[in-house]
Every structure is written in C-alpha cells, then in structure tokens.
Specification:
Rossmann fold, four-stranded antiparallel beta sheet, alpha/beta, binds magnesium ion, 31% helix, 12 strands, 8 helices, binds adenosine-5'-triphosphate, single chain, 28% strand
Length: 248
C-alpha cells in the first residue's frame, strides 16, 4: 500500500499549561475532502497551523508522502505544496486585491539589468483567478473597502497561484452570504475534482455534509471521531462536538 499524502502521528501541542492538541493522528489522502469540526478552542486552528508550518508540534511527527518532515515556517510548507486560508484571512488592508494575492510571491519583469514588479501581469492573473472563483472582486480594489465575501475570495485566490496538492481552509464560510457560501462549496468541489486534498474547518453542518468525504472531530485537543461522511450524521457530529457522544 502506498503512503498517505500527508500524516500527523501522535502530534501534541502545548502552550504553557494549555494542551491545545493531545496525541492526534491524521491521515490525508489525495483528492479527499476532510471536514474538521469541533467547538471553540477544540484545537482546529492549532492543527491547521501545524500542518501549514506556522507551529512546530511539541511532540509527534509530521509526514509528507511517507517521509518525516519538519517545516521551519509557513513558506517552507507552502514550497512543499500546502496552502492555507487562515481564520483571520491574514490580508493587508491597505493593499489592493492583486497585491494581496501575490504578497511574498510577486511577479517580476526584467528590463536590462533591472528587475521591476510586474503589476500588469499580477493584475491580469489575479483577475483570472477571481473569474475562476466566480467572484466579482476587482484586482485594483483596496482590501480595506471590501465585503467579507470579497476578502474571502482574495484569501482563496492566493491558494490557487501554485498547483498545491493540499489546501486548508479555516472557516471559509463563517462570515459570508448564502450565495457566497454556495460559491466556496462549489470551489471546493472543483478542487476535489482536480485531485486536490482539502481540509475544511467549519461549524456549519450543511457545509461539511455537502462537500466532505470524511468527518474528523476534535474535542479539547483530542480526536474523538474520524469516519466516512456516509457512516455518520449531523446529529452524531453534534453529539461528538458537544461531548454528548464520547467517541465514534
Ligand atoms: N498562540 C497561542 N498561544 C497560547 N494559546 C493558544 C495559542 N493558540 C491557541 N491557543 C489555545 O489552544 C487552544 C486551541 O485553540 P484553537 O485556536 O486551535 O481552537 P479552535 O478549535 O480553532 O477554536 P475556534 O473554533 O474558536 O476557532 C485554546 O485553548 C487556545 O486558547
Ligand atoms: Mg480556530
């Protein structure tokens, strides 16, 4: 059997006395959509930050294609094909949509011995990405002036610059309109169809039960469920999240 695309093995994360994650195992297959659920403070964002290289685990192992890896930082994880939309979106308000999409990955153009930022190429590519996402976001608009849904589109467009095989989305539908939720879910379906692995964190049962293949539930830093969506239900998920159901 071939190794999973990505694995956490026995991963724990402590912040002083707080046990944010305790002995968590997770395995991600290619083209899978995993719905990651849990109450506030359950450890979801901490898990995403470990997968994306923002945090180092206090204990345990991270494996990519069967090989133990240690990401020095998020740029390192990104170079290895892991992209993330953080819960706070991590955008620069005073920059344009296009600037934000290319932040840290600017396109450059050479004229003689000089290198210039190629604003025109970046605006064009950002415009293409927004069109693909069916977002009305315009590349030249300042992020400061944008709605929640437009900001979300900018953060998601960032993940499509490279053909990353793993995309993590930390509550992408928490603060957006019904129509925009449908668009984000459609985007996840398209990523899956092209073989991308998506980890979707959401508090919204309909989102998870619409697009996910597998449900993973964290409670107080421990994984209490990891099963096929077809073998569970929103009622069971709710019980697992609240603790009414111990484990499944
Ligand atoms: N940088 C940090 N320093 C100290 N404690 C932290 C840090 N990040 C997270 N924690 C703690 O770790 C625990 C898990 O937090 P985490 O953000 O992973 O939860 P979450 O499941 O994403 O919650 P939410 O649904 O509210 O986003 C919490 O008790 C939180 O206070
Ligand atoms: Mg969180």
């Amino acid at each position: 059997m071939s190794a999973p695309l990505f694995e956490l093995r026995g991963v724990s994360k402590r912040f002083g006395g707080i046990h944010a994650l305790e002995q968590v195992d997770l395995s991600l297959g290619a083209g899978e959509v995993i719905g990651l659920m849990g109450d506030n403070g359950a450890g979801k964002s901490t898990m995403v930050r470990i997968i994306a290289g923002n945090f180092q685990p206090s204990e345990g192992e991270v494996r990519l294609k069967g090989e133990a890896v240690r990401f020095a930082n998020s740029a390192d994880a990104r170079d290895r094909g892991i992209e993330v939309v953080h819960q706070d979106l991590a955008l620069c308000d005073n920059l344009t949509a296009a600037d934000n999409v290319f932040l840290g990955r600017e396109l450059k153009r050479r004229i003689g011995p000089f290198r210039f930022l190629d604003y025109r190429a970046m605006a064009r590519r950002a415009g293409e990405l927004f069109a693909e996402l069916q977002s009305e976001t315009r590349p030249a608009d300042k992020v400061r002036m944008m709605s929640g849904g437009q900001r979300q589109a900018v953060a998601i467009a960032r993940t499509r610059l490279s053909d990353a095989p793993i995309v993590l989305m930390d509550e992408p539908t928490a603060a957006i309109s019904v129509r925009q939720v449908a668009q984000v879910l459609a985007l996840i379906e398209r990523l899956k169809a092209s073989g991308v692995t998506v980890v979707l964190i959401s508090h919204r049962m309909p989102d998870v039960f619409t697009v996910a293949d597998r449900l993973v539930v964290l409670r107080r830093g421990r994984k209490v469920a990891d099963k096929k969506i077809a073998d569970t239900s929103p009622e069971e998920a709710t019980g697992l999240i609240t603790g009414a159901i111990e484990r499944a």
